[in-house]
Fold:
Amino acid sequence: MGRKIFRSPVMLIMPSILAIGFVIIIPLIFSFYTSFTSYKLTRPDSLFNFVGLRNYERLIDNAKFWYAFGRTILFLAVVLNLELLFGLGIALLINKITWGQRTLRTIMMFPMMFSPILVGFQWKYIFNDNIGLLNNFLYLFGYESAIPWLIDKYLAMGSIMVAEIWANTSIFAILLLAGLLGIPRDPIEAARVDGCNSWQVFKNITLPFLMPFVFIALTIRSLDVGRAYDIVHIMTGGGPAMRTELLWTMIARIGYKDANMGFANAMSYVSIILSIAFTYYFFTKLVAARRDLGQQ
Amino acid sequence: MKLFKSILTVISVFSLSFSAFAVDKSFPNDKVAMWGDFSGITLDVKLIGGAPYDPLYEVMIPIWEEKTGGKVSILSKKSHFELDKEIKQDIAAGNISYCVVSNHTSFATQYGDIYRDLNGIVPGDFLAEFVPLVLEHSTVDGRLVQLPQHSDVSNLWYIKSIYEDEDNKKRFKAEYGYDLAPPETLDQWKEQAIFWSDPPNFYGTQYVGKEEAITGRFYELVIAEGGALFDDEWRPTFNDEAGQRALQWFVDLYNAQAVPAGVLNYLWDETGLGFASGTVALNLDWGGWGAYFNSADSKIGGDVGLVRFPMGSGGKRGGWSGSHTYSILNGCPEENLEAAASLIWILTNHEAQMHEARGGKLPTMTRVWDDIAGEMNAEGNAFMSDLFSTFKASMAEDAFTPPLIPEWIPFSNIIFPELQAAIVGDKTVKEALDAAAKETDYLMQDAGYY
Structure:
């Protein structure tokens, strides 16, 4: 048995196993363990104060957490769908262009080059009620009231969504453009010869070919958006009155500001359910889409 | 763009104004000198950063390095909220072997016993120079864990010209039945704020609306209204009538649109810049903005008045106060200890405090209060002279710290969303305070207070 372990194939993959162990497995096990303790960052000895399922029990009764959970699902659903629509639109438009496509592709990616913190600051001041660009622009047209973009129950979440969509739609656009460039021309030309109009070509040929790309993009972005933190933190900090509180702004505050890392880690593990659910759903859809195309 | 321009203006104003103040490198007015030969020693430090704080480092640290031969390596320079998070992570990671760190009287209690007791490290005759109450606030469990650099407490700034306008006086008297003058009470403050408001062009007043900032503001209004956050056993009491009156004050101003609509997203920079933009009549703020408010870079330069924090119905004024401080960590190697003490001496000594006070920051040394007032009088600077006499009275008569317990920040994180919920109308005042009290009760029970 011992000799088997030292055989060359095992030895060859050992560096990868060790790297994954140190970088991923051990931190995961450690943080999972702390979710069963009353670990506070400022009291290292509390790491050994095992409290069993207490953190998880408190979580179940914590209405604020479940509101944040629900808000995060809503945020994910709206942002992903709009990014998909806009990204698809941009990709289709750019795909039509025969001159300057490369320049446009580069320009399209500009928002992705900004740090999310910078994006947050930029939109925070655009939406500032008093000296923000948007309200001052509206005043030019005779609007006489300061719209509280980052305060109002609906507008605050909408404003954050706008920032998130602005920053990341190009991820969808670039992935879908790659899909469009890979679509074979023959079926499209055959359909046109058979008298299909543009909508029919798009619906029956282009879109089915694109669906695997759509679901890959959705999977990647759902993991990203599910962890949304920087932009929300800068624009509203999750407020006011928790109106824009998402899971990770709440977890970061409890973990770092309150230093209550045990409880924050319990929240994190419950939150992961969301990412797993979205990933599972999109992968199922991806497999189905590939099957429809006759791929494995 | 306007705001970015304003931010740049503030940064440049703070930087230029402070660097313009001369420092006498011989430190003639310092009774205690803590120079030494620290050649070969590099002190690792983490400091609070930003426009109001950097100018002192830029002046004092090079002098210290030149005179002692030591070096300062700044590992981190951040806002205090970010620094707070970093220190907590450092404690968790056991990475607390640097020497000097910025601290604050409201934050220090959270960090356990990571700091050295400065008694015995800093000479007693230097400590004797500080205001005793401020040193008391810097003490945790009987240990002096920090040396105060400057203090903060807030008073009410106002635009003078609108109060001097005869037409305004007549209109106000006709509407409210008493003479228009800067507010003496919280009720007058509210009435005048509503009187001045003409949204979205002009607002009566404003308040910092989130995080510990609004918790502190609520706290001082509770005290002014005759209430308290906790009873003697640390059970929450802020949901009583005094607490409700305090929160109602914020709600009324918001509902009357006497404050900017986005006020719940404002912190100190937003309120300071807003007042300097000339769009707010009354602004509660610390003295550190004073020189900027009255400068040519502010739209109300030369037109700024200042009165004490108005009184609440409990016959008290608000006076939420704290001090920015420096601490030495236990992990600082013994051989660097003298150098570390020397560094915090140069950042808190008479010369440093005079340098900061010229910009409006409040000194923590008894002697500096007199010396800065004398200097401003000699220069004929009536505005700064008035600033120091007003803030001196506040520090002496009104100032109080938040509860110096490790639970202050977690408590703040519980209560501030509830305060906001009442202000925006998601909950009634009573519902919001009761919800916060219930959660605070759990917090204090878990912490073992009862």
